[in-house]
Design a protein that fits this description.
With 397 residues, the chain is an alpha/beta fold. 41% of the residues lie in helices and 16% in strands. The protein has one domain: Glycosidases (TIM Barrel), CATH 3.20.20.80. It binds 5-hydroxymethyl-3,4-dihydroxypiperidine.
């Protein structure tokens, strides 16, 4: 018997820059060109043109929801200059999802900024909140019938990206700490001043979208399922606040909070421990920890004071699809247990629908569907049929 409530959303997620292709006006496109060692997004998965095919594959599998994003750099290529054609494009995406029986979950900002916004100082620029609000006002005009809106994706990661962009603008670079034997370096803690700015922007846009549309509004926080080693309890509280809890507290009063979880990390008395190289690591060097989803959902529920949860991302970078199914199945066990314990969870959206551009790399494949990088031919993996089948039974296994 399934423990998942009736009306539970089952589906997958993508982000515009990672799948659309040729997002020329975005700051990330610019960064890709400037940074040696970064692979280019290029045509990405050409989903800008092939979104209907992507959505149809998802709907045909049995899933009932799709999270995708609107790209600010396309909608507003110059400050105040709105592209009606791009707005119409995103409206067509919403209509296509609805026609196919997929509940659209729409993200307004997923890491990338218009170049002009970055040039104005990005998220710490004087007009940042006003600019984002004005973009949100524009997008609100096409959101009719969209029940779920995410203002920003992973603001806690966006804060780190903002911090690094500011360093780069001042001619410096973040020096990755030295780690033993190729272990994955720990990202720096985001500056809380940037975090507070993002919270302000989120609240402003949340209020506006609520006022102008019928959507439930929230934001989606990257959750690292941090766990203390004996003696690391105090450090855990400290690092968790700047990395996650500031943003989870910012979700109090929202209609929902998006949980995004992939792995877990240990915190010792000196801080987060770099994860060592291990044969069972994922393709992004993280630990194979499907239990992280349960930990993340419970922590989010606690810190947000009982804000309804939507799992907006969970998945694994692997070339082995059987492993993807095993990981997801175990992650859903943890989610089901949290639901059984009273956590109000509204849906599960797998990351990702497609093997897509993983921010500088193409090798880490997270998709339920493989994409040929030359021809863009889509090949669904067994995991897509597996998830769709589960969706048809509302998670009953
Ligand atoms: O690809 C990213 C996504 O853009 C944000 N959350 C984590 C994913 C996997 O690294």
């Amino acid at each position: 018997m399934s423990k998942f409530p009736a009306g539970f959303l089952w589906g997958a997620a993508t982000a515009p820059h990672q799948v659309e292709g040729n997002n020329l006006n975005s700051d990330f496109w610019q960064a890709e060109a400037a940074m040696p060692g970064m692979e280019r997004s290029g045509d990405a998965c050409d989903s800008y043109h092939r979104y209907a095919e992507d959505m149809r594959l998802l709907a045909d599998s049995g899933c009932n929801a799709y999270r995708f994003g609107i790209e600010w750099a396309r909608v507003e290529p110059e400050p105040g200059l709105v592209s009606r054609a791009e707005l119409a494009h995103y409206r067509r995406m919403i209509d296509t999802a609805i026609d196919l029986g997929l509940t659209p979950v729409v993200t307004l900002h997923h890491f990338t900024n218009p170049r002009w916004f970055a040039a104005e100082g990005g998220w710490m620029g004087e007009r940042a909140v006003e600019r984002f609000l004005s973009y949100a006002e524009t997008t609100a005009t096409i959101l009719d019938g969209v029940p779920w809106v995410c203002t920003m994706n992973e603001p806690n990661m966006l804060a780190i990206m903002t911090m690094m962009a500011r360093l780069a603008a001042s001619g410096q670079q973040w020096q990755s700490p030295t780690v033993d034997d190729g272990a994955r370096p720990v990202l720096p803690s985001p500056d809380p001043a940037i975090g507070r700015r993002l919270v302000d922007a989120h609240h402003a846009v949340r209020d506006l979208i609520r006022e102008r549309t019928g959507a439930k509004v929230g934001w989606t926080v990257a959750n690292q399922a941090l766990v203390a080693r004996p003696g690391g309890e105090e450090k855990l509280r400290e690092v968790r606040y700047v990395r996650e809890d500031l943003y989870l507290e910012g979700a109090k009063g929202d209609d929902f909070v998006g949980v995004q979880s992939y792995s877990s990390m240990w915190v010792g008395p000196d801080g987060i421990e770099p994860h060592p190289v291990r044969p069972d690591n994922t393709l992004v060097g993280t630990a194979y920890r499907p239990d992280s989803l349960g930990l993340a959902v419970r922590h989010t529920w606690e810190v947000t004071g009982g804000t309804p949860v939507l799992v907006t991302e969970n998945g694994i970078a692997t070339g082995d699809d059987e492993r993807r199914i095993a990981y997801t199945s175990a992650a859903l066990d943890g989610l089901e247990a949290a639901v059984a314990d009273g956590v109000d969870v509204r849906g599960y959206l797998h990351w990702s629908l497609l093997d897509n551009y993983e921010w500088g790399h193409w090798a880490p494949t997270f998709g339920l569907i493989a994409v040929d990088r030359e021809t863009f031919v889509r090949t669904p993996k067994p995991s897509l049929a597996w998830l769709g089948d589960l969706a048809r039974r509302n998670g009953g296994r």
